[in-house]
Structure formats: structure tokens, C-alpha cells
Amino acid sequence: MQGAGKALHELLVSAQCCGCLTAGVYESAKLMNVDPDNVAFCLLAMDKEDEGDIALQIHFTLIQAFCCENDIDIVRVSDVPKLAAIVGPSEESGEPRDLHCILITNPNEDGWKDPALEKLNLFCEESRNVNDWVPTIALPE
């Protein structure tokens, strides 16, 4: 579990540097609709205060179904402030962004050979083998 958290942290930093990170439920849904084959990984994040948000729960259910249908690995994170510390504000506006859904996309046609992504793909595969289809990962301190 700890290794998966560290790999997720590395992947988020790497993807942001490469311009392969899409943040926001609406932005992610738009990208999945236009170019689902380019999505390499999906992360859903929710804090305790978000648990009563029915609209967000519906979005998550639809995103999870889409990811399962299109063989996109997906994980959950329950600490949005830690996630915000890693990803930071929007580069364009400097405003905090919606981090409830983050997609990692392939920067080129050959796919992405990021070791952190490969570790997370293996983690997700192992989780599915024990019927945990959307595993939760704890981000490192």
C-alpha cells in the first residue's frame, strides 16, 4: 500500500511536468468523451465533507463505469489537501482547481513508459484479483 502511494505521488508530479494531467470532473469527462484511448490512469478524490454530495457520487459512478468499460485503471484517494499540495493550483489562472477527478494521459502514440505508472497498473491488477475494483491509496506524508 505504501509503495502505491509513493508511486502515485511520483506519477502525479511526472504527469504534471509533461502536461499529461487533466484535473476536474467536467474536464475529465470531456476528455474521456473525446479521446478515451489516450487516458492511461484515473484518480478519484473525496474528503469526508464530500460524502454527502449526491451529484459528485453520481459523477464518480459514471466515471468508474466508463473506466471499467475502457480498461482504464482507477484508484481513490481520500485526502484532497495532500493531493492539492502535490498538484498545486491551475497553471493558467493560479486558482485552486477541482481535484475530485484527475486523469493521466499518454503524451505520445507509443504510450507512456513511466515506472510509477507501471507500478500503479500492477497494483490495480492485483487489487482486481481480490475483487477490489477501485482501490483506495493513501498518499505519503
Automatic annotation (TrEMBL):
UniProt keyword Hydrolase present: no
Keywords of the record: Apoptosis, Developmental protein, Differentiation
UniProt entry tagged with the keyword Zinc: no
One GO-annotated biological process of the protein: cell differentiation
InterPro entries in alphabetical order: GADD45 (IPR024824), Ribosomal_eL30-like_sf (IPR029064), Ribosomal_eL8/eL30/eS12/Gad45 (IPR004038)
Coiled coil residues, start to end: none
Domain Ribosomal protein eL8/eL30/eS12/Gadd45: 7-89
Pfam families cross-referenced by the UniProt entry: Ribosomal_L7Ae
CC per GO annotation: cytoplasm; nucleus
Family: Belongs to the GADD45 family.
Quaternary structure annotation from Swiss-Prot or TrEMBL: Undergoes concentration-dependent homodimerization, which is required for growth inhibititory activity and enhances interaction with PCNA. Interacts with GADD45GIP1. Interacts with PCNA.
Functional note: Involved in the regulation of growth and apoptosis. Mediates activation of stress-responsive MTK1/MEKK4 MAPKKK.
Name of protein: Growth arrest and DNA damage-inducible protein GADD45 gamma
